[in-house]
Amino acid sequence: MKAKAVFKIQKWDEKPYHEGPGEMKLTRAMVDKSFQGDIQGESSNESLMVYPTANSASFVGLERVTGRLGDRSGSFVLLHTGTYADGVARSSYSVVPGTGTGDLAGLRGQGAFSTGHAEEVAMTLEYSFE
């Protein structure tokens, strides 16, 4: 099955935890999102980021999504890996096995998105259940 949704960032709180002269900046970002479409609900994400240059970054993160996927409700966790360069953020993500709760128990899946600075971001999730 394939879910299509859009998300909006509700809160972005990013703080450096390591930086200095001649060193790459490392940050931790706490991000809250809301979803509409085949995925409806909210999420909390925590990402670790490294900035090789002032205009590029790589990141990893965990995001707990709570709400509905199609006609099922519950929560699940996505593992993200991605980059930011030339004004475009790209992320690939997968459902962490065993994190589905409620009607979403047994959820498996993966997806991706790519976006510039936008108010709403389109995403997909190809998924199945064990």
- Percent of residues in helices comes to under 10%
Radius of gyration: 15 Å
What is the total number of structural domains?
A: 1
Q: What would the principal axes of the Cα set say about the shape?
A: elongated
What is the H level of CATH, i.e. the homologous superfamily?
Answer: SO1590-like
What is the SS-derived class?
Answer: mainly beta
Question: Beta-strand level of the residues, as a percent range?
Answer: over 45%
Please give the alpha-carbon distance between the first and last residues: 13 Å
Low-confidence stretches: none
Task: Determine the number of helices (DSSP H or I, runs of at least 4 residues).
Answer: 0
Largest sheet: number of strands, sense, barrel closure: 8 strands, antiparallel, barrel
Task: Describe this entry's structure for a reader.
There is one protein chain. By secondary structure, this protein is mainly beta. The protein has a single domain, classed as SO1590-like (AOC barrel-like). 0% of the residues lie in helices and 76% in strands. The protein has an eight-stranded antiparallel beta barrel with strand order 1-2-3-4-5-6-7-8. A hairpin with a 6-residue loop joins strand 1 and strand 2. The protein is elongated, with a radius of gyration of 15 Å. The mean pLDDT is 96.
Essential attributes:
mainly beta; AOC barrel-like; eight-stranded antiparallel beta barrel
In short, what is this structure?
The protein is mainly beta.
List the helices and strands and how they pair.
Layout: E1 2-18, E2 25-37, E3 39-53, E4 56-69, E5 72-85, E6 88-95, E7 107-115, E8 121-129
Antiparallel strand pairs: 1-2, 1-8, 2-3, 3-4, 4-5, 5-6, 6-7, 7-8
